[in-house]
Amino acid sequence: MRTFGLIGRTLSHSFSQAYFSQKFDRLHLTDCRYELFELAAASELPQLIARHPDLAGLNVTIPYKEQIWPYLTRVAPSAALVGAINVVEFQADGSLVGHNTDYVGFRESLRKFYPAEPGPRALILGTGGAAKAVAVALRELGIAYWFVSRDPLQAQLTYAELTPAVIGAHPLIINTTPLGTYPAVHECPPLPYEALTPAHYLFDLIYNPRETLFLERGRLAGAHTNNGLEMLELQAEAAWTIWNSN
After folding, report:
1. Tens digits of per-residue pLDDT, 178-213?
2. Do 54 and 2 touch, CB atoms closer than 8 A?
């Protein structure tokens, strides 16, 4: 039995297990299963691997996309480019290789959603591993951006600096924070939502719930909205390709 799984701190919101379980059923892969592994710290990865010698691949989510780095044998160019890891490949010689498929999933989903024109600007809400993947994708698409954070020491802008004028100058706003993720569905990033217009495009990496409060408030203001479900599917398929490349 080949075991694949997701590691993170809290995983009750995740659709990954359902996605891969349905994939295995559809492909009649009776020798594969997908599990959720909640870890209190990234340092628990070696013990997890020791307990599950049949592990064949892992996805990585908040907050371990950056913290897992020291426990891997090496990183692939995609992970080095982003500076974060969301896929772990188990090679035949026992090596653990970190990859990043988040930025590809986001890039391809954004291509369909956002009609980029010359000189577009974006706001990336958050500064974690997912935000880094988004930044790489935006650079590849030629979209300039600012990071936004509560901590002025870690970002180019703070939420307090998001005036209506700043919002108006940035038609694309991407939420990479966990704010609004199930079960805390009544949370959302602190933006001046009244400044949003039909010219704005809001992309939330969250996919559970399908419409976060961030997206709902954007939709009510007339903005275009998109959640992270397609991104999840695209990055998952890229992960599956990596896991079966040996």
Report:
1. 999 999 999 999 999 999 999 999 999 999 999 999
2. yes
Query: In one letter, which amino acid is 178?
Result: P
23 catalytic residue (yes or no): no
In angstroms, the CA 98 to CA 85 distance is 6
- Local confidence band at 118 (pLDDT 50, 70, 90 cut-offs): low
Phi, psi of 167 (to 5 degrees): -60, -40
Top-level class of domain 103-230: alpha beta
Q: Are the C-beta atoms of 46 and 71 separated by less than 8 Å?
A: yes
Q: List the catalytic residue out of 23, 65, 112, 132.
A: 65
Closest by CA position to 73, among listed 88, 58, 86: 88
Whether the model clears a pTM of 0.85, i.e. scores above it, the answer is yes
Per-domain boundaries in the chain: 2-100, 103-230
CATH number of 2-100: 3.40.50.10860
CB neighbour class for 131 (10 Å; exposed up to 12, middle 13-18, buried from 19): buried
